[in-house]
Design brief:
With about 210 residues, the protein is α+β, with helices and mostly antiparallel strands. The chain folds into two domains: about 100 residues, 3-Layer(aba) Sandwich (Glutaredoxin); about 110 residues, Glutathione S-transferase Yfyf (Class Pi), Chain A, domain 2. The chain is built from eight helices and four strands, in the order E-H-E-H-E-E-H-H-H-H-H-H. Strands 2-1-3-4 form a four-stranded mixed beta sheet, with helices on one face. The chain is globular and about 50 Å long. It starts with a strand and ends with a helix. Bound molecules: glutathione (GSH). The site of glutathione has 9 residues, from loops.
C-alpha cells in the first residue's frame, strides 16, 4: 500500500502524521508551503479541490477530512490501538474528534483568519475576541474532562492527538493558556511520545526547507 500525506508545518496535518507514526505505517509526505499558497495551486487542487490540508493519498485515492483520515488509519492498523474496540468507547473517541473538527477548530480559524468571518472594515479585533472567548469556554470543558486522567479515554487514542493539536495551535495564537492546567499536563504527556518527537523534528526540518526557498 502506498501512502502519501499532504503535510504542512503547524497545521492539523500533524494529527495523521503522528497517528501513521504510532501505527508504524510506511508513508511519505507531500510538503505544502501554505505561506506561498501552495494549497491553492492547480496541482494541489487536483488532489483536494477543497484546498485544505491534510489529504491522505491511499494507493492514489485522496482521502480528505481529518476525522475520516484518523478513523481510516485506526481501522487499517488495529494493532496500534488508536481507537477502542468497544462500540461505546469508540463512539466516545469519535465524539471528541468531531468536537475538535466542528467545534474547536473553527474557533482557531476565526482568530487566525477573522476576515473570513466578517468583511466589515475595523471588525477584525471583535471577531477575534469573540472567537477566543468561545474557544476558552470549550477549553474549560476539555480541562474538566481531563481532570484526574492521563488520556481522554482509558487508553491513549486518536482523540488525544487531535486535541493536542488544537491546544498547541491555540497557544500559538493566544499564549495565555496556563490556567487550563489539565490540558497543559496532557500536552506535556502527548509530547513525550516518540511519535510526537518525530513529528516535531520533521516539522522543524520542513520549516527550514521552506525558509531556504523563500
Ligand atoms: N474540514 C477539514 C478542515 C481542514 C482545514 O481547515 N485545514 C486547514 C489547516 S489546519 C487548512 O487547510 N486551511 C487552509 C485554508 O483554509 O485556506 C478537515 O477537518 O480536514
Amino acid at each position: 500500500m502506498k501512502l502519501t500525506l499532504a503535510f504542512s508545518p503547524v497545521v492539523c496535518s500533524l494529527v495523521p502524521y503522528v497517528l501513521l507514526t504510532e501505527a508504524g505505517a510506511e508513508f511519505d509526505t507531500l510538503n505544502i508551503d501554505m505561506s506561498r499558497d501552495e494549497h491553492h495551486s492547480p496541482e494541489y487542487l487536483r488532489i483536494n479541490p477543497k484546498g485544505k490540508i491534510p489529504t491522505l493519498i491511499i494507493d492514489g485515492y485522496p482521502l480528505t477530512e481529518n476525522v475520516a483520515i484518523q478513523i481510516w488509519i485506526s481501522r487499517t492498523f488495529p494493532q496500534a490501538g488508536l481507537l477502542p474496540q468497544d462500540p461505546l468507547e469508540q463512539a466516545k473517541a469519535i465524539s471528541i474528534m468531531s468536537w475538535c473538527a466542528a467545534g474547536l477548530h473553527p474557533k482557531i480559524t476565526q482568530q487566525a483568519r477573522p476576515e473570513r468571518y466578517c468583511a466589515i472594515e475595523g471588525t477584525a479585533d471583535s471577531v477575534k475576541a469573540l472567537g477566543s472567548e468561545s474557544l476558552f469556554e470549550m477549553l474549560a470543558i476539555a480541562d474538566t474532562m481531563l481532570a484526574g486522567r492521563e488520556w481522554f479515554l482509558d487508553q491513549f487514542s486518536c482523540a488525544d492527538v487531535y486535541f493536542y493539536w488544537i491546544f498547541r495551535r491555540s497557544g500559538f495564537l493566544k499564549p495565555d493558556l496556563a490556567r487550563f492546567t489539565h490540558c497543559v499536563a496532557h500536552m506535556q504527556r502527548v509530547e513525550m511520545r516518540p511519535s510526537v518527537q518525530k513529528l516535531l523534528a520533521f516539522e522543524a526540518e520542513v520549516k527550514a526547507q521552506f525558509a531556504l526557498v523563500k
